[in-house]
Amino acid sequence: MVIWSILTRQAWDDLQRRGRLRASRRHVIKDFLGPYLWMADQMERRLKVPRPSKDAMPIWAWYQWEGKRCKPDLRCGGHLPKGERGVRLELQVADGRVLLSDFVLWHYVLNYWYLPETTRVGEAFEKKLAEAGLSFYKCDHRHPLPHARFRRQIEQSWERIFDIKWADRRHAIAEPLQKKSIQATLWELALGDVIEATEFRAR
What we know:
This protein has helices at residues 9-18, 33-46, 103-110, 119-131, 148-157, and strands at 2-8, 20-24, 56-57, 59-64, 85-92, 99-102, 182-186, 188-190, 194-201. The chain is α+β, with helices and mostly antiparallel strands. The strands form three sheets. A three-stranded antiparallel sheet has the order 1-5-9. Strands 3-2-8 form a three-stranded antiparallel sheet. The protein is globular, with a radius of gyration of 18 Å. It starts with a strand and ends with a strand.
């Protein structure tokens, strides 16, 4: 499949020098470590290639950008910190190396929110928590819900992000596939994967 990855100029230089690029815990912002560890565990379960090391973290890319199978628009902000030099790579990689997930729904994982099938199911779950004196809005990956059963339900709900065709009936939670931004994670990039490299300065 063709995917696109946004790298810092330094990461691009490292890839060219070493012939491959991997991420580890030292590359992860502290506040994101919990979600990244969860994603890494999912990759280990779902991908056809083994985790290269115990310390390995996901490398991120785009499979679909704002509903279109096209390269991310470098005129948009948010790819890298404003003013930073970066490189957009177009990559050709084997399907089995890549785990796809819904970018918008990934924010449920980042924020430690329950991802319900419908708004009604979500409201019912929040009511059960409230009756037990709990709320996932007051928790995060470093301070998860103390109740094991509720914690499992929340973490299992996140697995919906991998069903990229899933959308709730009213689209109150998940958009249909043709409107989604779909992210891709993989263990490493190889220089031989690169089809095109486009340098830019982040806006």
